[in-house]
Amino acid sequence: MALGPFTLATHKLLRGVRRRDQNGRALSEGAAMKAVRLHRAGGPEQLVYEDAPKPQLGAGDALIRVRATGITPAELTWAETYRNCDGSERLPAIPGHEVSGVVDSVAQGVNDVSIGDEVYALTSFCRDGAAAEYVAVHAADLAPTPTTLNLVQAAAVPLSALTVWQAFFDHARLAPGQRVLIHGAAGGIGGFAVQIARWHGAYVIGTASAENRDFLLGLGANEVIDYQHVQFEEIVRDMDVVLDTIGGGTRERSWQLLKPGGILVSLPEPIPESEAAAQRKRSKRGVFFIVRPDREQLSQIAKLIDAGAVRPVIAQTVPLAEAREAFERGVAGHTRGKVVLAVEIYERAT
């Protein structure tokens, strides 16, 4: 697979060159890695591809030699992207919280994984992410990668698939035969939502642009509504679950589609309490949640992937050095599936 401008020729030019940080200080070989970092909060324009210190392992950690990371453009707006778990500022910060790669080393006493294991995970949002050559991860969050995927493909799975799994089964308690409406069905989360809901025996309706109709029918959707030309609330009724990846007016208009006892799961933003309270009087529930790492759920998802019931959809694979451009495309929206950053670690001069 071609990985863009960081070619073998470029690599040869870099060999033997002593690396320096942004302030011109020399970095010792073996202590540095290439990473994408934010030195201040902001959008894709703040992303810098540069040298960074290699992560240090804490108790219970494993060091992963990153092969790829899926990107979630919205993470540049999350407070957790710039804060440590204790609330202190974390700058510069490395984004990218879904990772696939190989276990490089483990902290003392860790037996969840072994050196050389191929793994994937959703990493903690309040730690540096995986848009780098190495990332430190809680070993207990790591799961074996699906055997039918390569490591680049596996990176498109953790955040999106876990979000869907937790939305449907932890919060909505989705049951076979129920009717599900998925807004933004062609996106990274939406694609998994269509497949997992259909696998579970639900009747699945997705909203998307007309150009994605055949794609979503191929993933298992029973119906696809062209949101650009059709008001979904005019033709959809009696839904048990609405999974909203859009927010705002789309969420507000979706309440009327739910039957009594139905639930609306909002992924982009919390539901205002006044709005939720009004709907509770109509016996309708709303929930907003933040996805969490879960090794067991990732293992279950891997089994579905290996059985052919679910597959990741990758919009584009780009090299780590082009992360800024990849985030810009993601912020612009309307990608089909997930954008993945591929990472190659090149031998360095000693």
Spell out the key features of this protein:
disordered C terminus, disordered N terminus, 10 helices, alpha/beta, 350 residues, single chain, 7-stranded mixed β-sheet
How does this structure look, described?
The protein is of the alpha/beta class and 350 residues long. 24% of the residues lie in helices and 27% in strands. Strands 5, 6, 7, 8, 9, 16 and 17 form a seven-stranded mixed beta sheet that branches.
Task: Please outline what is shown here.
This protein is of the alpha/beta class.
Write the layout of secondary structure elements.
Layout: H1 8-14, E1 19-20, E2 26-27, E3 32-38, E4 47-53, E5 61-70, E6 98-106, E7 118-122, E8 134-138, E9 143-144, H2 151-154, H3 158-171, E10 179-183, H4 188-199, E11 203-208, H5 213-219, E12 223-226, H6 232-235, E13 239-244, H7 249-254, E14 258-266, H8 273-280, E15 285-288, H9 295-306, E16 314-319, H10 323-332, E17 338-342
Parallel strand pairs: 10-11, 10-13, 11-12, 13-14, 14-15, 16-17
Antiparallel strand pairs: 1-2, 3-4, 5-6, 5-8, 5-17, 6-7, 7-9
